[in-house]
Every structure is written in C-alpha cells, then in structure tokens.
Design goal:
Number of helices: 2
Structural class: mainly beta
Order of helices and strands: HEEEEEHEEEEEEEE
Number of domains: 1
Number of strands: 13
Strand order of the largest sheet: 6-8-9-10-11-12-13-1-2-3-4-5-7
CATH topology: YmcC-like fold
Mean pLDDT: 81
Length: about 240
Amino acid sequence: MKKTMVLVSMFLFVAVITLAQDCKYYFPKKQGAQIEYKSFDGKDKLTGSSIQISKEIIETGGAYTAKIETQSFDKKGKETGSNEYSVKCENGTYSIDMKSFMDAQTMAAYEDMDVKVNSDNLEIPANLNVGDELKDGKLEISIYSEGMKIMGMVTDITKRKVEAKEEITTNAGIFSCYKITYTMTVKSMFSVRMEAAEWIAEDVGTVKSETYSNGKTMGYTLLTGINNELSPNRLFLNKFS
C-alpha cells in the first residue's frame, strides 16, 4: 500500500511539473522587455499608440508571473495615461488579468476618485486547437466620489473561439499566430456590443487585433516593435515613423 501511495504521489508531482513546463507564455519572457503598438480607425488613420513594458517577471518551478505596464499616447504623441495588469503562466494555462481592457485615457479622468475594480482572468490553455472554445471573462469598475457611487462600467468578453492559425506580417516581423474571436459588450450609461478578433503569438503576445460592428471594421491595432534589451525606464517608441 505504501509503495502504491508513493507511486501515485510521484505521478501527481511529475504531472504538475509537466503542466507548468508545458505552459506557453504570450509576452516577451524578459524583464524590461517593451513592445510597441499603433492603433488605426476603419479608414487606416492613426488614432494612437502604446507601449507595454514587462516591469517585473518571476519564475518559480517553471511558472511565470509578470506585471505589465501599458503607457498610452494620442495620435499626436501626447501621453494620455497608464495602466498596470498582471499575467500568469502556470499549470498549463496562461492567464491575463482583464484589467488589461481598462482604457488608460478614460481612467485618468477619475484618478482623484475612489475606483474599485473586480476582474476575471482570460485564460489561454497550452494546447490550442482550431475550433476550441475558451472561457469568458468580466471586468467590473465602480467609481465613487465622497463615498457615493457615481458610475459603473462592466465589460463582458464572451463567445471566445480559436478560429484559425495564421501567419501575420507587421513592421515588427512575421509571426505564426492563433486567431481568437470573441464578443465584447461594454455597459455603462448605455450598452455597446461589438465583435473582435485577436491574433496572438507565443513569447510575443497580441500581434494584431480588430473590432467590428455589423460586419464593418471599426478599428485595428498592430504590433510595430519589440525590444528585449532596454530597461523599464527607457522607452524605444518611435511614435510616428
């Protein structure tokens, strides 16, 4: 009996280690890494840009946890705000805190108020296959002034599905990506519903994303640069090249 229990324990231990090692990471796996994005409207006009910086990354037993800072800029290059969220790669699943969907410019208007955030993690399993359906996610933001709630915003991500595996080319290079589609509903004073697609690559993250309304492209964002060498205090963004 003891020998059986030992064998079972060893099997479970090996299984856990294997899951951790099998986890795929969707961001440059280096502290200080920076990635650059540019966003455009449906008519291909620049609407803004952003930098995502890996401020802290911790590896423990094959699992990774990182804090990511997003710095956002308008189309003229003026900084409009920043936001932080976390990502984790553990036991065969990569998860992204839905705080990544918080708009830095919008939240900057409430920086002197009490903001409470309740968010899920969007999960990406290690072994993606075309046709897979992924878990939903929700982000709830409540804004208070002098103890009174003055605004609430809810973002729901639903109907997530792996639609295809495609090669995407941007100014940053050529990437083998999984295309994930989903429905995004934002509820505040009124409700907005849109369809979206995101192309993700291992050790990079989002390479391209698009939003649609009634089949028409509303806007898109492209990965335009990757830098694994600079420190978190130095920015490499060439905003308007």
